[in-house]
Amino acid sequence: MSKWYIEKGEQGDIVLSTRIRLARNIEEYPFPSKLDIEGRRKVSKTVHDAVAGSSIGRDFSYIEMTSLPRSQALSMAERHLISPEFACSGEGSALLLANDESVSIMLCEEDHIRLQVMKAGLALHEAFDTADRIDTMLDNSLHYAFNERIGYLTQCPTNLGTAMRASVMLHLPALTKTGRLSALAATISKLGLTIRGAYGEGSGSKGDIYQLSNQITLGITEQAALDNLSAITLQIVTHERAVAAELIKIPSEEDKIFRAYGILKSARLMSNDEFMELASLVRMGAARGILDIPIEKVNELIVTVQPATINAAQGKSLEPQARDQIRAQSVREVFNNV
Amino acid sequence: MSKWYIEKGEQGDIVLSTRIRLARNIEEYPFPSKLDIEGRRKVSKTVHDAVAGSSIGRDFSYIEMTSLPRSQALSMAERHLISPEFACSGEGSALLLANDESVSIMLCEEDHIRLQVMKAGLALHEAFDTADRIDTMLDNSLHYAFNERIGYLTQCPTNLGTAMRASVMLHLPALTKTGRLSALAATISKLGLTIRGAYGEGSGSKGDIYQLSNQITLGITEQAALDNLSAITLQIVTHERAVAAELIKIPSEEDKIFRAYGILKSARLMSNDEFMELASLVRMGAARGILDIPIEKVNELIVTVQPATINAAQGKSLEPQARDQIRAQSVREVFNNV
Fold it and tell me: What count of other Cβ atoms lies within 10 Å of the Cβ of residue B66?
């Protein structure tokens, strides 16, 4: 089945994907950090039974995290299907994963239930509708910890209320290269949103890809939060497009794009950092129409040539140079066949 | 008419070309530096008449150096058809140039006559035979300054004797990159030869291309000098091939070759220094069979995208960025059509 991240969605030249994450807990059980292995197993089984017995049961696989090879777990984290912490979680934690990987439900992560829906492009309301439908269905068979005044109860108080984190993944090469992103980030935080690098720990912005998400979950409805995030996303998209259109008119910047494409089509060894840097240039070239490449091909490579995902595909943990060789080969194959 | 430098000759993977240069002076006149404009004109006309009246007269154009646009004169120097000093020479100096540019006769350079024959690949004896035939023909109608004991008289005493400078242009990327060339250069000088960078002043070895030439002209016959140079050239060629074969087995070195090719096929702006660096890698890849490119295409580009040659082709002196754009375009056109 085709994976959601291969598609190009709304505003797909800049918005790679949309994610909605709902945190839920079951009233009868303490939060996962207060549960022993047996308790976590019970919670995971309870949710699994609720999903399996529902109309969507057949679309999901149930995966006990300890049964998952490490490279596969890390690959899922790279693809943002699970959190990096959850990739290393122990006995009792489990994952319900939709076959097309568009829905994942982490069981006994920070909360009992972390329901996550992903869609290509800008699709906040569509993704929320899907999440809401699954959430309503689970609500019918589980007793959620809920308080009339403060909404859904979550382990971390920053999630109280809607317990919804909505985010979009944005490719902002022009705003990054012209240094305008830092000013933008300051404005964004005043609007109740936060922006951070979507790839790599700390380094911030590998591939000029960022995650923009809502921060406020208390005293606001889901719809209002989505409307706010959607409107600001569209403003950033317009801004990026305008700056990029100017940037590619500069001969030396245009040259960088074509060179990046030339290197991607020919290199025999490529580190992930270099790939992300070159892929960003090529993606901007494709998005602005100076390179005739389907943007989905770039999106797909950004997902498939990450280190753990290469290891997972090869079924073993490779030495960096062997991985750099496989990465270069995958990249060549894709770009020499478009 | 196809130019000699487009061909691939003997040992053509490493030997780009062979050059024989004979210095001659006419007995009745002082050396050019002692001549006024009128005297230089007379000498040039005398030699011109001798060539025009001979069987090869039709193959040559007679060019007064002051009538030549500066960009064309500099382009000829880049193509090693004339010396850089001669490109800037004044009234009275002239050039006899064969239509295929394989023979050039500088008139009133340092000596009255500097007869130069170039051939593709390693062809020392063939090039000398051609030079010798033209020299014999001129000798029939001119009175050369010649002394039984010290041979041909030349302005600079280092040329006395045979007054022959024989040289081969060698592409030695592997010996350069592995640092073995400096040791080799020391050995070479003990054998009466000298090696120096063929492109660029001072910088030494743009594109890893070197000129290897004989130093000794006194007390040695032309044939002995040619045999010596030929034998040492073959030894260097064998050495370069062996080191290159090892070098390209290293994945990171192989990667550099493919990247260089990728950049050459895609860049929109390219300086001459960068071109020479990348062309050297690609030429090594073509020479060692890992890139499927006719080596003549690389040879031709090395000649045609030099700065003054681009200016000459455009008929004007361009700004560096405009030239970098034309260079990148020429390079792309050649490599995307092989």
Answer: 12
| A-B C-beta contacts closer than 8 Å | 50
How many whole angstroms separate alpha carbon A64 and alpha carbon A57? 16
Chain A residues inside the 8 Å CB shell of B293: none
Closest Cα in chain B to A291: B266
ipTM of this model?
0.83
Range of the domain at B256: 251-335
A237 and A302 inside one domain: no
Indicate which CATH number applies to the domain containing A108: 3.30.590.10
User: Number of structural domains, chain A?
Assistant: 2
Last residue of a domain, one of A223, A243, A263: A243
The chain B residue lying nearest A329, using CA atoms, is B255
Best probe of the B interface among A252, A258, A266, by most B CBs < 10 A, is A266
Whether A209 and A257 map to the same domain: the answer is no
Interface mutation target, options A255, A261, A274, A325, chain B, most CBs of B under 10 Å: A255
Q: Are B211 and B198 in contact (CB under 8 A)?
A: yes
Query: In a structure prediction context, what are the per-residue pLDDT tens digits for chain B, which is 338 residues long?
Result: 457 777 789 999 999 999 999 999 999 999 999 999 999 999 999 999 999 999 888 999 999 999 999 889 999 998 899 999 999 988 999 999 999 899 999 999 999 999 999 999 999 999 999 999 999 999 999 999 999 999 999 999 999 999 999 999 999 999 999 999 989 998 998 999 999 988 865 546 799 999 999 999 999 999 999 999 999 999 999 999 999 999 999 999 999 999 999 999 999 999 999 999 999 999 999 999 999 999 999 999 998 999 999 999 998 889 999 999 999 999 999 999 98
Please check whether residues A128 and A163 belong to one and the same domain: yes
Which chain A positions have a beta carbon within 8 Å of B262's beta carbon?
262-267
* Statement to judge: residues A193 and A306 lie in one domain: no
Pairing, β A193-197 against β A209-214:
antiparallel
CB within 8 Å: B263 and A265:
no
Strands of the sheet containing B103-107, edge to edge, are: B60-64, B94-98, B103-107, B113-120, B15-24, B164-171, B209-214, B193-197
Domain finish residue from A243, A269, A292: A243
